[in-house]
Amino acid sequence: MDRRENLKVLITGTVATGLLISTGCKDDKTVTSQTTTQKYLYGRTPEEAAIDKKLLSETFFTVKERKMVEILSDIIIPADDVSCSANEAGVPDFIEFMMKDDKKLQVPVRGGLMWLENFSLATFDKSFDEITPDQRIVLIDQIAWPDKAEVAMKPGVKFFNLMRNLTCTGFFTTKAGIDDLGYLGNRPNQWDGVPPEVLQKYGLKYDEKTLSQCLKIEDQHKIIQWDDKGNIIG
Predict the structure, then answer these.
(1) Which of 8, 128, 168, 224 has the most CB atoms at less than 10 Å from its CB?
(2) Distance from chain centroid for Cα 46
(3) For residue 86, how many other CB atoms are within 10 A of its CB?
(4) Of residues 145 and 215, which shows the higher confidence score?
(5) In this model, does residue 111 exceed pLDDT 60?
(6) Is the confidence at residue 33, as pLDDT, over 80?
(7) 65 to 24, 92, 110, 126, 134: CA distances (angstroms)
(8) Helix, strand, or coil here: 112?
(9) pLDDT above 90: residue 52
(10) Considering only CA atoms, which of 72, 62, 71, 61 is closest in space to residue 143?
(11) What are residue 232's DSSP bridge partners?
(12) Same domain, 137 and 234
């Protein structure tokens, strides 16, 4: 799965609402409940912190389900030369949290994992976490492209869309994901006015007063002052 295609889905599709659970790539892919409980309580009211602590102390996925989520996360957003994989960024922890925070996701995700497991058993006579990476892609290719999927694959398509949305939400709200996007946020800059070619296109131009008082680069960081009649001083 191409990461830029994932980004397109994230921007144009319906994305699951999420919280920032991880802040970047980790060497240790497994975060214990105790560690997680202590780490992610910033910016919360006491009531919210108490709810978060309770949810983070609980476990939703079975060991097998968790393994499948980790595999799917890395299929959707693998590591590349820009940043780490979704799994390394802690996305499975995010998805685990969302299962407990938004209980309506539990049946679609758990049911989807069961569907994928049965699909793997029927196709390769092995569990999804036991087949080879190439065999997994054979299965995923049949549910990853809604417009091309067969009618019988619709349950899998719906499940994979949900997993893709959760994975993208989790990844692109971590430091690793934000760095991957190249998002810089608000930065100070210099405004030199409307580009000359645009002014020329519409037959417009700046008057001398505007040029001298508003578009002088050397004065852009000065705080403007007015006299008692509302005229700019200087």
Answers:
(1) 168
(2) 27
(3) 33
(4) 145
(5) yes
(6) no
(7) 23, 10, 8, 15, 20
(8) helix
(9) no
(10) 72
(11) 226
(12) no
Scored b (16 or more CB within 10 A) or e, 145-156 reads eeeebeeebeeb
User: Cα–Cα distance between 59 and 99 in angstroms, integer?
Assistant: 9
CA angle 20, 25, 27 (to 5 degrees): 130
pLDDT for 72-100, tens place per residue? 999 999 999 989 999 999 999 999 999 99
Distance between CA 28 and CA 49 in Å, rounded? 25
How is residue 232 written in tokens?
């700019």
Which pLDDT does position 168 carry in this prediction? 95
* pTM of structure: 0.65
Query: Alpha helices of the chain — where are they, by DSSP H?
Result: 3-12, 33-39, 46-57, 63-76, 91-101, 106-124, 133-140, 154-171, 175-181, 196-201, 208-213
Task: Let me know whether 197 and 167 are in one domain.
Answer: no
Domain with 225, as residue range(s), is 190-234
Sequence-distant (6+) residues with CB within 8 A of 174 are 20, 22, 23, 24, 89, 90, 91
Six token digits for residue 83: 């940043």
- Co-location of 85 and 138 in the same domain: yes
Given a cut of 90, whether residue 231 has pLDDT beyond it is no
Find, among 65, 149, 63, 165, the residue nearest to 112 by Cα.
Answer: 65
In this structure, the answer to whether residues 162 and 219 fall within a common structural domain is no
